[in-house]
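Lab channel / #folding
Pinned by the channel admin:
"Please post every new chain as: sequence first, then the structure tokens as a reply. Keep commentary short and put observations after the output so the thread stays searchable."

First post following the new format, from NK:
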Amino acid sequence: MHALIKNSLFVNRLIAKAIDLILVIAAASIFYPAGPLAAFLYILIADGFKGGQSVGKRLIGLRVVNTETGKEAEFKDSVIRNSTVAIPVLFFMVPIVGWFLWIVIGIPVLAIELYLMTRLEQQARLGDTMADTKVSEIKDT
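Reply from TO:
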């Protein structure tokens, strides 16, 4: 079995992000026209809530920690680390031109994020590197 599949942190991060994306898509759809903006803002600040946890991370038992302070991520950390995901989502919300930017810029940025998570020992995304953060399991305290 591939070493990545055995890595529970990687799998748990993907599950937590999937939960958050389901919430984002639901909010954007149900609360239209304000929903897409609310969804975008949630993506930015999600890891700054109590415990350094988005809804998905809270359900899965993960948290984001600032590597410089050792403390749970704050909203500032969350905005920096999630901007690499939020900006491509913002592109997707703009008809035609935004969809083109999503394909040309958004998909490659998200592919780089996933690639870095699978290749770097600490599983740091580009956003984690920019914000000096890491994702850890709660039991790893």
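NK: Residues 3-140 form one domain.
TO: also worth noting, The chain has a mean pLDDT of 87.
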